[in-house]
User: Fold this.
Amino acid sequence: MLKKVFARPEKHKMYFRQLFHEIDNLGVNSVGIVIVISVFIGGIMTIQFAYSMANPLYPSELIGLGTRDTLILEFSSTMLALIMAGKIGSNITSEIGTMRVTEQIDSLEIMGVNSASYLILPKLVAVVFIFPFLYILSVFFGILGGLVTGPLVGVISIPDYIEGIQWLFIPYYVTFSIIKMFFFGFLVASVPAYFGYYVKGGALEVGKASTKAVVNTNILILLFDLILTRLLLT
Amino acid sequence: MIAVKDIHKTFEGNKVLKGISAEFAKGKTNLIIGRSGSGKTVLLKSILGLFDIDSGEIWYDNRNFTETREKDRKKMRQEIGMVFQGGALFDSISVEENVQFPLDMFTKMSAAEKSKRVKFCLDHVNIEKKAFGLNPSEISGGMQKRVAIARAIALNPKYLFCDEPNSGLDPETATVIDKLIQSLTKEFEMTTIINTHDMNSVIEIGESILFISKGKKEWVGTKNEILNSNNKKLNDFIFANKLYAQMKESK
Assistant:
């Protein structure tokens, strides 16, 4: 399928139009949920770090440091990709799957359009392109969530939290996570597209394909997370 | 003209097409009829190249489609219009954009030229201007079929394929669709192949009829000959509807 997806487009202008549509549909429309989840998780992590470090021997800056590094290394990349696999992945499978069972894909093929490329390539490029931005957004709002929640519930002061998030900062962690996001973006777009493109039957099968796509994408994200962490971080 | 020669097609050991040969004339409405599961859709999709046949030949005028490379097939497909059973309109774009899609994809027309062509096609299938901006889900089944026909003729095709174009429509709308396809076939001199099991369509527009049963060609004729055929399988198919049995008796 990938060979068909990366074949030369019939008309570049049409593909670019689709690409901008997909950036808006799959990327920009995900910004809201990314912000909400990140703010809450950032806040929750700050409280949990404060609880587990309730020992006078530990400096309180560790709370900010722990929140920051967890967001940068794992939550805003892997966890966010798992969530996006559910949101974006099921959207891709159901959209392409419905087009398959209602013969819209056959219709494209008969017109002489490479349906795999026209339908999948713009989604793939859009998701790979938008994922690093969603990651940066998630880190920012996660840290902001901690900054608001920590002092609000009285587990840390604002100066301690701000000092903590600047303490022992390793920029490579961000680079590492952005590299991961390119891989996760590819998985979140390509695996659901595969399940949608080859679905057979009707509405029930599209639903089943959507579930299978999300499950398989999640497993692959975790597997790639393990491999990339081993290769790039240790 | 489209010709098929000794076509065979098997799915997982199940022989669906068993050596069908037929010719479909230019400027005529050629009907493929048969019971459900007789192989009509497989034959149609094989002619279109959506299924690769096991053996046999498919000719579009003097071009052997079976021996044509995929790259050249794609070019040939721009000469083909197809109306699917469910319309198969792209549901994320409007009626107007659906008809414009093949023009956007395959022509270098200016925006004004495209708009003119879209209007011409939609006018031809009697779609009112107020429906141009609606999405397919916002219009009736009959209108969806007419928009699908408009999209199919947008690139001025030489060949038009229709897979059960009036299924799910009331008899009056079905007749409108049948007549529309027939008039467009004459006007644009297309080779039209229609897949149907609707006897009303057969009697209305069956200028050339191919009856297939269990993947084999059983009978070829016209709408004037069909009621007087001696083919038992064909008669069983037609006269399952008592109305046509009465029509034959009254003749």
About this structure: The interface with chain B takes residues 10-11, 13-14, 99, 102-104, 106-107, 109-114 of chain A (CB under 8 Å). Chain A has a mean pLDDT of 93. Residues 10-233 of chain A form one domain. Chain A has one domain: 10-233.
